[in-house]
């Protein structure tokens, strides 16, 4: 009697051994006896602004789930916007991202983006008309959102470090 369900062969190879074991180092945010809880950080170079946004969103989630308080939706959106602008500028104007760090503290999230250009960020000229889609306001937004900004020029480029508030 046929049930309409195909038979399953038990002769099929076991493919589980072909799947690589993937492990991700996630800090134990609970802390150990006698140690302070570890704040989540990230330092993997993103290839795109979207990757940077994902990494920072993960750090914010880990912070809220661990030693810190939840980050407000407005602050989260501002942080993601600022990170996106910094990485986009490094990719578009700075010859690529050479450094990317994000670390949490009670004061906020500190993000560093490095690139290959020694040129300082420029402010848009309000007297000059801008072509549609030309941009130019990312640095202005970063300056408005950050509570602290540090620019470090080196022989092979620059690092921009910003502190963004959690509230």
Structure description:
This protein has 167 residues and is of the alpha+beta class. It is 28% helix and 20% strand. A hairpin with a 2-residue loop joins strand 2 and strand 3. Helix 1 packs antiparallel against helix 2 and helix 2 packs antiparallel against helix 3.
Question: What's the gist of this structure?
Answer:
The protein has 3 helices and 5 strands. The protein is α+β, with helices and mostly antiparallel strands and 167 residues long.
Walk me through the topology:
Layout: E1 41-42, H1 49-65, H2 73-93, E2 97-105, E3 108-115, H3 138-145, E4 148-154, E5 157-164
Antiparallel strand pairs: 1-2, 2-3, 3-5, 4-5
Largest sheet: 5 strands, antiparallel
Strand content: 15-25%
Shape: globular
Derived from helix and strand composition plus strand pairing, the structural class reads: alpha+beta
Number of helices: 3
Overall radius of gyration: 22 Å
Number of strands: 5
